[in-house]
Specification:
The complex is a heterodimer of chains A (95) and B (492).
Chain A: H1 5-14, H2 21-38, H3 73-77, E1 83-84, E2 87-88
Antiparallel strand pairs in A: 1-2
Chain B: H1 8-16, H2 22-40, E1 43-46, H3 48-63, E2 74-78, H4 105-112, E3 116-121, H5 155-162, E4 168-173, H6 179-185, E5 188-191, E6 211-216, H7 219-229, H8 249-252, E7 264-268, H9 278-293, E8 297-301, H10 309-324, H11 343-354, H12 357-369, H13 375-397, E9 402-406, H14 422-426, H15 433-438, E10 442-449, E11 455-462, H16 467-480, H17 488-491
Parallel strand pairs in B: 2-3, 2-4, 7-8, 7-9
Antiparallel strand pairs in B: 1-3, 4-6, 5-6, 5-10, 9-11, 10-11
The chains are: A mainly alpha (95), B alpha/beta (492).
Amino acid sequence: MALTLDDVQRIAHLARIEIDARAAAAAHAKLTTIFALINELQAIDTQGIVPMSHAQDVALPLRDDAVTEDDRHAEFQKLAPAVEDDLYLVPRVIE
Amino acid sequence: MEAPQDTVAGLARALHERRISSVEATRDALARIAQAQPRLNAFITVDEDGALTAAHAADAAIARGEAGALTGVPIAHKDVLMTAGLRTTCGSRMLEGFTAPYDANVVEGLKRAGTVLVGKTNMDEFAMGSSNETSYFGPVRNPWDTRYVPGGSSGGSAAAVAARLVPAATGTDTGGSIRQPAALSGICGLKPTYGRCSRYGLIAFASSLDTPGPFGRTAEDCALLLNAMAGHDPRDATSLDRPVEDYAQRLREPPGAKPLDGVRVGLPREYFGEGIAADVAAAVADAVGTLRALGATTVDITLPAVKHSVPVYYVIAPAEASSNLSRFDGVRYGHRATDYTDLMDMYKKSRAEGFGAEVKRRILVGTYVLSHGYYDAYYLKAQQVRRLIADDFQRAFARCDVMVGPTAPTAAFELGSMSEDPVQMYLNDIFTIAGNLTGTPGISIPCGFTRAGLPIGLQLQANHFDEARLLEIAHRFQQVTDFHARSPGASA
């Protein structure tokens, strides 16, 4: 499962990270060594092993379906790069 | 000879007995930080006004007879932990101008216990690194020799405690980020059981692994901090509802002739094999001898799947990181590029500019292993091998109470020596990562020095929720050794 330069461009797009040809080539070289390490896993026999998704096998708790948070939108929106009329501003997406 | 206020326990006692005020101790810490900053770069933000206000309040509380165990003690928080009203950057350009709107749970706990926050410590960007070289705010340097790294990702906290700038600090450990810098900087660092300390307000890297914990010069100091950090928090769904002990209680009991009588110490064959520097191996062997002299018995054990822990980690941690870091989109908070053509271009440029090279690399790895057609081969496979590693640990803990070995295969390495080879850097965490995958606690304590005078760390690991035992064994070791009491200035 060798990683190609096209793969790097594709995953950078999926990850929403701009990458030019030179940066993609540099990333490709380093990612290739990382995947050589990761690919060691393919040789391990894991037939019938239940995947472990968490550090401890405990059921996640449910909480009451009740409002517990105060309205702090003004405070939180102060952190945003651009806000108008309580709305986050982004470039126009619908013409 | 160290001043008693160099430790949390000593300083708390001096404060309680009114031999020193919190304002004096805090001014002293601020002065040391200012003096060391050009040399070590251990801090990203120093909050002088906030610290002195908190110190005055602590002195008033002490005067009223309302002091707790940590009232008036100056500490620092790793900059991955949210601190209300104070800049919280995560070592990244992405959050360079971000002021946290609330406190992390462990920050709240330590505030409630009376600690005085002096500032936020430098770290690898988004806690991704083992050398503190990936910080947007520049590398931290090792106080024992500034040509060397302090370890990472909590390198600023480790360097600050090692250089006696503050008696204690917090860190977070996702693959070794508390224990490895503790080892490389010659102090104690505890990674608690996953679920023991809440992750609320910890800026997420890999949610199934991230664990907040304390740094101190002694095991006793780590216990005092853990007392204020541990506990159930309903705001973190993975926080576990288990009773909190007084982790310092057993440490107060007189040691007796053989304080570790009945303790079974496991020696994993894999921790004593190839790839370990000779002076590290020798110091760890001496430490095992000390544990035996204190009454412990040793048991040879084996952890055959642990050799896979680095590749497992470099699938699971980037996968979780790629998901967690998708929140940085330049819309709600964080860096936004100034020039862009449309929404997609804004996302891509904001993230390209806001994240550094190592963070981008891990996001790309994570995106790939979770992408269509590769999920089973990588992510599911890694989760299965994670189970094999956890099974190894449970088999081992049926035969021993703690496992010991080196925290890292080598002492500190020189700045720049590994930054071009990510895999070589990743392998520095070979002994710590399994503790994150299994969720079990571990502590690193000083156990010797290399010929060049760099500190060496001993890792002790225990089963889930057995922090009290780890801290007691570490404390008994420190009662008969003085590696933890040496300071960088004295070795020069």
